[in-house]
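REQUEST
  id: r-88c1
  op: predict_structure
  target: Methionine aminopeptidase
  payload:
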Amino acid sequence: MIYYKTEAEIALMRESALLVSKTLAHIAGLLKPGITTLSLDKVIGEFIRDHQAEPTFLNYKGYPFNSCISVNDVVVHGFPDKNELQEGDIISVDIGTYKNGFHGDHAYTFAIGNPGEDVMKLIRVTKESLYKGIEKAIAGNRIGDIAYAIQEHTEKKHGYGVVRELVGHGLGKMLHEDPQVPNYGRRGTGQVLREGLVLAIEPMINMGKKDVYTEEDGWTVRTVDHKPSVHFEHDVCVRKGKADILSDYSIIEAAEKNNPNLFTKA
Ligand code: MF3
Ligand code: CO
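RESPONSE
  id: r-88c1
  status: 200
  body:
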């Protein structure tokens, strides 16, 4: 069942999405070697509640934290923990907010210090692929057009591994709505996109092979070859002619550039 949002609902969804962006920007200002991801998770929960919202992920299907924080070879759904971040780590921070009846859900990958040129390239290419997918999120296109654009840029062009087991999704009153949005597929296939469809588009791209496994905790997804993986996610409303990005990376990128502990050049 696909829910197309009204303009009033889209306005509320933009608020929820922007609160995720603001939370990620706040976290971007705090990242440094020596900080634990558990302390970041605590700040994330407080920041969201201070803005009259709830952290979506907490207790979602039993998920035990406010956020998913995935370091290096963890692809997604990493548990915040007491390990200290190290120079050269990459860290995907994925946050959900529930406000005014709608969810925001997006993610950003940061580099703590310099992880090396090849990893910085993986970060750059994954972010580029997200925007290439978003360009296709216009009325009349199909889900497969988004999927193909992401796979083309990452797997075909750069030889990276596109994770198959996890996909993007519709977003709204529920965190996961139809349709699924894979990061691989064929052009001209799948659900036709109509104005008012809100999608969480989220490439999960591995430096090495595409294969992943889930740890004993039932959540943490890791690359089989233990090479790094990068995750970016935006909340996007399908429109005629041009996709409407409800989330906002510009404030996250500004905070990232202002933090000397973070590496941004690719
Ligand atoms: N952004 C992820 C998703 O879209 C995170 C959800 S997992 C959760 O599926 F359990 F933490 F909520
Ligand atoms: Co998501």
